[in-house]
Amino acid sequence: MLLPRQKTPDLKLPTLSHGDFDLSADSSERGTIICFYRGLHCPICATYLGELQKQTPAFAERGVSTIAISSDGRDRAQDMADKIGADGLRIAYDLPLDVAREWGLYISTSRGKTSIGIDEPALFSEPGLFMVTPQQTLYYGSVQTMPFSRPHFSELVGALDFAIKNDYPARGEYTGAV
């Protein structure tokens, strides 16, 4: 399990049109929103990433960069980018599943074609949403076993406003006896 205020795993991946992504070198003032998505086969992911695409300027205004990541290869990632009209959202691909596990993501097996007629990969990660500070420590994290009921990006923007205004620390860091 990742712990708030502790260093996250390293993350270095190719992106479709923004060069290589290296979390340790991402230079946003307040950090990076990392949205791990299931892949092209997931219609809920397309809707979700469309919302992230719309909120990317709001995050940027607050000094936070965004990136969407899946284990899909380049072609499937490009198809997803085209589907959602990703012009400001970085899309990374080829996430190794052992790295997905380091981030605490759940791994699923294929059930064949989805409701939109696209084959699921043999193995893929389920969704996860993280905000990582410029020091590469975890500020916020949410992982899921299913594609349903994900955190809303507009609410996250509002929460970020509150956190900035009140210098609100990352929570959930206690690891002692209970």
UniProtKB/TrEMBL annotation:
Signal peptide range in chain numbering: none
Q: Which CDD domains does the protein's record reference?
A: PRX_like2
The protein in question is named Peroxiredoxin
Please name one Pfam family that this protein belongs to: AhpC-TSA
Q: From which organism does this entry originate? A: Aliiruegeria haliotis
Domain of life, source organism:
Bacteria
Which InterPro entries does the UniProt record give? AhpC/TSA, Thioredoxin-like_sf, Thioredoxin_domain
Gene3D superfamilies with a match to the protein in the record:
Glutaredoxin (3.40.30.10)
**Domain Thioredoxin: residue ranges:** 2-165
MF terms per GO, please? antioxidant activity; oxidoreductase activity
Q: Per the UniProt record, which residue ranges are transmembrane?
A: none
